[in-house]
Design brief:
- With about 350 residues, the protein is α+β, with helices and mostly antiparallel strands.
- It folds into three domains: about 30-125, no CATH class; about 145-200, no CATH class; about 215-360, Tetratricopeptide repeat domain (Serine Threonine Protein Phosphatase 5, Tetratricopeptide repeat, Alpha Horseshoe).
- Helices cover about 65% and strands about 10% of the residues.
- Strands 4-3-2-1-5 form a five-stranded antiparallel beta sheet.
- A hairpin with a 5-residue loop joins strand 3 and strand 4 (about 60-65).
- The longest helix is centred in the first third of the chain and has 24 residues, at about 5-25.
- The protein is globular, with a radius of gyration of 24 Å.
Length: about 350
């Protein structure tokens, strides 16, 4: 073997060794889906509302980010530590670690993911100032729309006056730097800052509430939920007429990853029913926003049809029968008579009522 040939083999061996090391580092990634960690994988990116990764067998996979409950990247150890902190309920620790990732990450999708989780951690801590500040930064910096689908409006509306005024000021300043779709997200923060959270009526038969058992039964009987929503505590609260509790539980669940489409739908149902009981027009608009977020960000989800139907109902209630009719028509093919008979009946009841109202108005 000549010196030149030997040198070539040495360089080739070194190259293969480096490739092996890089592969092992990448394969330290992990994704948590449906409560289970899938590892080792190589996470490629998050784009188009999906997490893209490669399995150990080399198969390229893509799953909706709505199903992503956790993410660890070997090249960013702080992200794995933050995930562990979140699962341990240590949000203060998670905040510091996620902040490191947002500053250190080179890839925009990694910064977006870490920023998304950072806002959620601040929401769970009740830190409206920092939650809104990080959220506004993400809106302005062009984070993928899924990461900014839920403005931290509830924690802002519950903040003191000084914080709400500052959030409103920052949001209004940012409005001039983004397009119409992102302006709508910032406007939700401005509205929350200008409308402090009222003490809502506790529907669920609290002592001295003045709500009779008969009214509670009527509430429970009046809620029709789609069969496409899996059973769980929030569903049971809605069926029992505990709308305030259901709304709070949905907000708390939305601060954690997973099942976002179904939770938005359930939140909208709680908001809609409370608005009807309390006669709050703002409640109708809030419910409509929850349903529309399902349609914009999760158009292929199992609750897209029910959310479209309820969005139509909201428009019917606020005097826009033209939009209601279009949404009802689009919802029809998405609601199966055999798989979801109760909602299929609701579809025909609402369309029939709209047709009757239209005929009466002529």
């Amino acid at each position: 073997m000549t010196r030149a040939t030997g040198g070539l083999w040495v360089r080739a061996w070194a190259f293969m060794a480096l490739c092996c090391v890089a592969s092992q580092a990448s394969a330290q990634d992990a994704v948590k889906l449906s409560g289970l960690w899938v590892q080792p994988v190589i996470v490629r990116s998050i784009r188009g509302g999906q997490v893209h990764y490669q399995t150990p067998s080399g198969v390229e996979m893509a799953r909706p980010i709505d199903e992503l409950q956790g993410l660890k990247l070997g090249r960013y150890p702080a992200l794995a530590l933050a995930q562990d902190a979140v699962e341990a309920g240590d949000d203060p620790e998670a905040v510091g670690l996620l902040g490191q990732v947002t500053q250190q990450a080179d890839e925009p999708w990694v910064r977006g993911y870490a920023g998304w989780r950072l806002v959620q951690a601040h929401v769970r801590l009740g830190d409206a100032d920092r939650a809104a500040g990080h959220y506004i930064d993400m809106v302005v910096s062009g984070a993928e729309r899924f990461f900014i689908v839920l403005p931290p409006a509830d924690v802002v509306s519950a903040a003191d006056l000084e914080v709400r005024l500052e959030v409103s000021r920052l949001s209004k300043t940012a409005m001039g730097t983004v397009g119409p779709q992102r302006q709508a997200l910032l406007r939700a923060l401005i509205d929350a800052a200008g409308n402090p959270s009222p003490k809502r009526l506790e529907i669920a038969g609290a002592a001295g509430s003045g709500v009779s058992d008969a009214a509670g039964a009527e509430n429970a009987a009046g809620v029709v939920l789609s069969a496409s929503v899996p059973p769980g505590p929030i569903v049971e609260m809605l069926r029992r007429g505990e709308y305030d509790r259901a709304l709070r539980a949905a907000d708390q669940a939305l601060a954690r990853p997973g099942n976002t489409a179904s939770l938005l739908y359930l939140k909208g149902m709680a908001q809609l029913t409370l608005a009807r009981r309390l006669g709050e027009e703002q409640g109708y608009l809030s419910a409509g926003l929850s349903f529309m977020r399902v349609l914009v960000y999760f158009p292929q989800s199992a609750v897209a049809g029910p959310a479209k139907l309820e969005a139509g109902y909201v428009h019917q209630l606020i005097g826009r029968p033209d939009i209601a009719a279009r949404l009802y028509e689009e919802a029809g093919p998405l609601i199966d008579a055999e798989e979801d008979p109760a909602y299929y009946q609701r579809l025909h009841e609402l369309t029939g009522a709209l047709s009757h109202d239209g005929a009466s108005g002529d």
